[in-house]
Amino acid sequence: MVMATDPSTKYVPYRAVPFPAGYTRQWPNKRNTSAPRWLSTDLRDGNQALVNPMSNTAKLELFKVLLQIGFKEIEVAYPSASELEYQFVRSLIENNEVPDGVALQIITPARPDLIEKSIASLAGAQHAIIHLYNAVSPVFREVVFRNTKEQTIELTLNAVRLVKELTEAETSRSGTKFTLNYCLETFSQTEPEFAVELGNRVLEAWGKATPDDKVIFNLAATVECAPSNHYADQASSCNQYSVEYFGTHINQRDSVVLSIHPHNDRGTAVAATELGLLAGGDRVEGCLLGNGERTGNVDLITLALNLYSQGVSPHLDFSNLSEIVALVCRVNEMAVPTRYPYAGSLVFSAFAGTHQDAIKKGLDSQEKRWLAVDRSGEGIKSWSMPYIPIDPKDLGYSYDNLIRVSSQSGKAGAAYVIKQSLKLELPRRMQVSFYGIVQTMAEKTGNEMTVSLIVETFKKTYIIGAKPLGRLHLESYRLFPSTPDAQSSPMSYSDDMLTFVGSSNDLATVTPLRLEGQLSVDGTVRLIQGSGATPVLAIIDALQSSLGIQLVAGEFAAHAVDTKTCSYVEMHLSTDSPSKSGVGSVWGVGISSDVATSKCRAVVSAVNTLIGSKELPPAKRVYQRPSILNRIESGSWLGIVRLRAGHAPCDTQRNRAANAGGVVMILSWFYFLLF
Ligand SMILES: CC(=O)SCCNC(=O)CCNC(=O)[C@H](O)C(C)(C)COP(=O)(O)OP(=O)(O)OC[C@H]1O[C@@H](n2cnc3c(N)ncnc32)[C@H](O)[C@@H]1OP(=O)(O)O
Ligand SMILES: CC(C)C(=O)C(=O)O
């Protein structure tokens, strides 16, 4: 047994903040309604924790990105740590890398030799923040420094006095403005009264804090060792033991900035910071993606975007989050977990069926809502999306990854992918049918069904594409009115009329139609013929008699796709009676710029699936591809002859092209004979 059976024999729990009797906590009723002051310590706390600390070139690259994001306070180095660190600060100043309004922060321990070197590094800076630190909790006082409380105060004040002296000298030399940031390292484990006493003595020693030139007190949760509600209690407005105790007891509160520096040992740094801010924190120190010692500093991206998702501007710009993430990962030689808030590659992806269904519905309804706002000019385009707390587009992501399909997915997932990729809005029952196909594949492979795999499966299943994939292919067809008196007048269909013909279940009756066509069956082209009240019924009739099967049409739907129409038809063999949910029926899809053709193609697409590998009766009439002379005689190339004969049919595009070709050819011959 390695873990203790009774860990209480080894670990001492945190001590609750002893609120006075009858005290009501203030922080639970507060909200964060504005952004705090941010300090990025990526180049210091982040850097000191790396396996391979950044080169100065990498640090400069990251520094520039921090500026782009909008940080106004950046801790750039621990100048006394090495010549490299020192030189980094110098190069920023000497190469004018620091824009106006941006303060450089450097850190120094409370050791005179190191303070001197640190302040020297800042000569000539416009505005510098000296981050002076020493650990003040009992265990550090006793074990690390072997100091009493008084000695700890003395060590601190000596350091503050030295910082004051050296910075004042530098200000008179170069005009640099200095701010003191005194960090009570291990504050969260320190007796609150002692922390306040120390803070007040620092203020006294500094002696010049004003509301316009405040002293920062950095209250570090150097090690996170209690839950975030405890941190909030520490930070609450209790008059006894708290950060705000610090805030309410420290002298000159209006001349003090309370800064929070939480680490993430318990994985709750973000929560602790948010509660710490509720409880009076003004400023936050942290790193991008939570880099930093051990489990890291608090993640500034998560904090900022949490605020953003509440409608509060963080004043930090993460519009190109994936680029920022890539850069941080590169310079820090680290990876971001796929589930990491906002930045992980899967955080805006839903694999689970019910999530996908909700997101798809959410997107559809939001599109309509936003369109209404655009049209009326009233209301706001508010984000209200199941499962997705903020608009991925705000962070520079597309919606492509929103829905990812696996065996855990439902019908909406595959339907969403088809809509995004092919602009096809599958009818609900067809979604169920296609989902079954996709799920079987996903289960078989055990892998994700990628967008390209789903699209390929869709095209294969419904025989869509330039190259005929199935056993059946409708080469061409013509429709004629089949009533005796309408015989001589050509039946030409406008889209409107065909929409009427094909409406709902496509069974509305108009003038009966006769269909003649050429159907390729397993590579042999046969002539087909059928009649019916609508193009769909006519082609069904033709297929039935040619293929020797009895077909029943079910649901039908169609919609426009750019300049084309996409038709969907559900069919089954009369011998199979499908269940209510559609099991037993198949769907077909047809796309064409001609509405009737899209319907006929949809029927052929469905029948392709229905026949499977079934043996088919031989062709009654095989189509003989005519020789050139036959073609001339039959008028196939002389489409003009057919036109004159009054047989102008509703034809496939290919036949129209042949007719046009015929006309051009005849005109060419005339030209050739005359000249
Ligand atoms: C919580 C934080 O993240 S604070 C930042 C920590 N970051 C770093 O330490 C990175 C850079 N550090 C360094 O390069 C080195 O530690 C240096 C240059 C600062 C000092 O190096 P060294 O002189 O070799 O000392 P070392 O690293 O062993 O530090 C320990 C000594 O400093 C003292 N010390 C540690 N922190 C402080 C402090 N904040 N103020 C005053 N003294 C301190 C210790 O008591 C110890 O003193 P002792 O040797 O008399 O017992
Ligand atoms: C020195 C302080 C700010 C620190 O890094 C910490 O306590 O974690």
TrEMBL record:
Group of enzyme by EC: transferase
Cited SUPFAM superfamilies: 2-isopropylmalate synthase LeuA, allosteric (dimerisation) domain, Aldolase, post-HMGL domain-like
Domain (Pyruvate carboxyltransferase): residue spans on this chain: 36-322
GO molecular function term, any single one: 2-isopropylmalate synthase activity
Keyword Transferase: yes
Catalytic activity: 3-methyl-2-oxobutanoate + acetyl-CoA + H2O = (2S)-2-isopropylmalate + CoA + H(+)
Keyword tags: Amino-acid biosynthesis, Branched-chain amino acid biosynthesis, Transferase
Superkingdom of the organism of origin: Eukaryota
InterPro entries: 2-isopropylmalate_synth_dimer (IPR013709), AIPM/Hcit_synth_CS (IPR002034), Aldolase_TIM (IPR013785), LeuA-like_post-cat (IPR054692), LeuA_allosteric_dom_sf (IPR036230), LeuA_N_DRE-TIM (IPR039371), PYR_CT (IPR000891)
Membrane keyword on record: no
EC number(s) on file: 2.3.3.13
GO BP term, example: L-leucine biosynthetic process
Record-linked Gene3D superfamilies: 3.30.160.270, Aldolase class I
Cellular component terms per the entry's GO annotation: mitochondrion
Sequence similarity: Belongs to the alpha-IPM synthase/homocitrate synthase family. LeuA type 2 subfamily.
Name of the protein described by the UniProt record: 2-isopropylmalate synthase
Lineage: Eukaryota, Fungi, Dikarya, Basidiomycota, Agaricomycotina
